Each structure stands twice: as C-alpha cells, then as structure tokens.
Amino acid sequence: MGKMEKVCKLLKRKAFSLFLDTMHCRRPIENSTNSVCSDNPLVMAGFGTLGIEIITQLPEADAVIVPVASGGLLAATLVACKKLKCTCLVYGAESAKVPTMMKALQAGHPVSVPVVPNLAQGLSASIVGENAFATIKGRLDRMLVVDEAYIAKAVINVLERERLVADGAGVCALAAVMQGLVPELRGKRAVCIISGGNIDSSRLSRTIQRGLGVSGRLMRFAVAVPDHSKGLEVLAKLIADEKAVLKSLITEQMWVHTDVGTTWANIVVETGNEEHAANFKDHLRDLYPTARFAMLDVDDKRKGGMR
Question: Under a CB-based contact definition with an 8 Å cutoff, are residues 85 and 98 in contact?
C-alpha cells in the first residue's frame, strides 16, 4: 500500500470519527430542500478534514482562525482541532457589517441579522446554522469581528506577498490578525484559513483601491498653487521627484475664497508603501504648508476628512 493510500485511509477514519462527534450536537433540519447544506452533519464532517490536515501537517500549531458564514466550517474545524490537539486555540472571524455568529453567541441562540453590502460578501449569512451553533457554543475560544478597512488591506497583502487572489471573505481570518484582535498570539504559530477566491476583476479593482486608500498608500490632498504656468509645473516636479504616481488632478478656481492669483489643485497620488507615503507627505508640507490631506484613520475609527 502506497503512502498516499495510507494517508487517505487515515483521513477517512478521522472524518468518520468527526462525523460521530458532530452527531452528538445534531438538531433536525426541517423543511430543507437543499441536500448540500453547510449545516448538515455529513457536510460538516467533510469540512472537518481541513482541521485534521492542519493538525496532522502542522502539529505545533497554537491557534487556528476560521472565517465564518453560517458556521459549518468553523464548527467542524473546531471539533477536529480540539479532538487532535486540545490545547489548540480556535477562533472565528467575521465582518463587522454582518456579525451573525457574534450576535448568536451574545443571544445564546441563532438570531437573524440584516445582510448589508460588504467586502466579505461570501460570509453574508443572515443566520447561523442550528447544528453549527450547537457544536460551537461553549467550545469556541473567541469570536473576532473584523472592520472592512482591514479586510481590504488583507486582500492587498495576500496579493502582493503571497501572489494569491482571494476575496474579502477568504481573507477575513488574516484581516483579524492585521487588525490586532489577537495580541495573545504574538510569537506563536497561528494558521489563518484563506477560504475563497470568488472575486471578479471589477470587484477586485474596487477592493484594491479601498485598501490602498485606508492604508494611506492612495493619498488625496488639496494644495493652493499660483495660478500661472509654473504653478502646476513645480507641483508636478515634486510628485515626480518623490516617485509617486499621479492618479488624478483637478483644479478649482471658481469657488476659491483666497486671492484671485491662487487656484486649488485637488490631487490623488499612489505611493509604494506606508513609509513612502509618510515621506511624501512630509516633503509636500515643506513646500506647501497649507496642504490639506483626506485620509481614513482606521486605527482611531474616525471618518475621513480634510486635514
């Protein structure tokens, strides 16, 4: 018998054991017309093989963070990881715009949550599954609620560093780490499950633009420049010298309340990283002390505004 066949048999035995564990928490699914339901214990047992593979291949893992929709993947991974390594921490991660599992845990039972447009669209379940919730309740180490800004930043992070195209739902676990929601895992081995790449080019483009904006790499600002041929030339030279990419430039003359020899230039530039953005901002203010920047401060959770 080959090595691969032995591994497959081992996974089948552990998956069946996982199925028996989930059956202890099973509740009947009434009026179900969909045979492939993520809340079905058989389907959950299949999901659980992911947890088995994680602990089998990385037994030193200290924690696993799982993206959450209706909860089937989280419940199955939780059972598998705790069964194979009881000290392994298991967290769930979901979008702050549709906190279905968090609301259910707070209420003590599944509750319906309004589904609103968000970057993690694949996690937008209006209510968690009965079986999944019964399995998770009292066993989950912690539930993490992730801000949209960090989901956008995580999409870019995975794209640039890992060369992977993942959707907002898929990177929710990584976004939770980037947001600093699990400081207790610093220096430990944590596994972030990237669960999906269902994103078209249009939505990916918008997500990237959002992520660049909230990280400060896409900067919008307004500066007062002399209203003559050299005014914009000096500004353009500064942008070129700082190796920033000019994305948009619109001048405003009609509603300017300063002297008639001045015009305001509303500009958007792209920088290479956050350090580059900070240096560009400092040099621009050296030349234009009255420059006003519009940025989203995600750490203080304040709305973006000119400052």
Answer: no
Paired tokens of 172: 């929710």
Token representation of residue 237: 């030279």
285 to each of 17, 153, 266, 279, 281, how far by Cα in Å?
64, 26, 15, 10, 6
Strand 305-306 to strand 292-295: parallel, antiparallel, or no bridges (unpaired)?
A: antiparallel
Q: With H, G, I as helix, E, B as strand and everything else as coil, classify residue 82.
A: helix
The reported pTM is 0.76
- Sheet containing 89-95: which strands, arranged edge to edge? 142-146, 89-95, 63-67, 190-192
* DSSP letters for 162-201: I-----TTTTHHHHHHHTTS-GGGTTS-EEE--------H
**pLDDT tens-digit series, residues 197-240:** 888 888 888 888 888 888 878 889 999 888 887 888 999 999 99
Q: Check whether 12 has a pLDDT greater than 90.
A: no
Q: Set out the domains of the chain in order of their start, with CATH numbers.
A: 3-212 (3.40.50.1100), 216-306 (3.30.70.260)
Of residues 12 and 179, more confidently modeled = 179
